[in-house]
Please model this.
Amino acid sequence: MQLKKSLILVLLVLLADQISKIYVKTHFQLEESVEVFAWFKIFFIENDGAAWGTKLSDFLPIGERTAKLVLTIFRLFAIAGIGYWLWDIIRKGSNTTLQVAVSLIFAGAVGNIIDSVFYGLLFDHSYGQVASFLGEEHYAGLFYGKVVDMLYFPIIDTQWPEWIPWIGGNNFRFFAPVFNLADTAISTGVGILLVFNKRAFAKTAA
Model:
C-alpha cells in the first residue's frame, strides 16, 4: 500500500465522518432521533469525554473543564504517535493489512479530535434548538468542543422478566452505545489487528 492510497483512505473516512456530523449537528436538536429501522436509529448526542462518555474528572480530583483540556491534549499526542506509526510502516513497506488497519485508526482518531478541538467554535449549542454553523455565537472555546455521536443500534430493547431476582422488570438494551463513523473506523482498524494479527505483523509485505 502506497502513501497516496493510505491518504486517500484517511481522507474518505474523514469526509464521511465530518459530513455526517455536520449534517446531524445542523439538522437535529440534542437527543432528537429518527428511526431508520426498528433496530437502527439516528440519535443525536454529544460526548464530552472519552469512550462511553467516560470523563477524567470521574476518576481524578480535577474539574470537568480541566479534565476536558487534558483529554484533548492527550488525544493530540496520541494522534501524533499514530500518524508517525502509519508513516513509518508505509516507509518500511510493511504488510498491507497493517497499513489499512492503522490508516483507519488514524482517520477515526483525527475525525473525533476535530470535534474536540474546533466544534465549540464552529457551532452554537444544540439544547432545544438546531445548531447553526459559523453563527454569531459559539458554545465553547478552542479545545473544548464535544464529539458528535448519532449511530444507535438498539437491536434488543426490552425488559427482564419480573421473576428474575434483582434485575426483574429492569430495562435491557442491546446494543446501547451511540457512536459515529470515526468510532467505527477505529473499531474496524483495531478489529483487523486482532483478527488478522499474524498477517498484519508479518515480516514481509503482502
Observations:
- The longest strand covers residues 40-47.
- The longest helix spans residues 64-91.
- DSSP finds five helices and six strands in the chain.
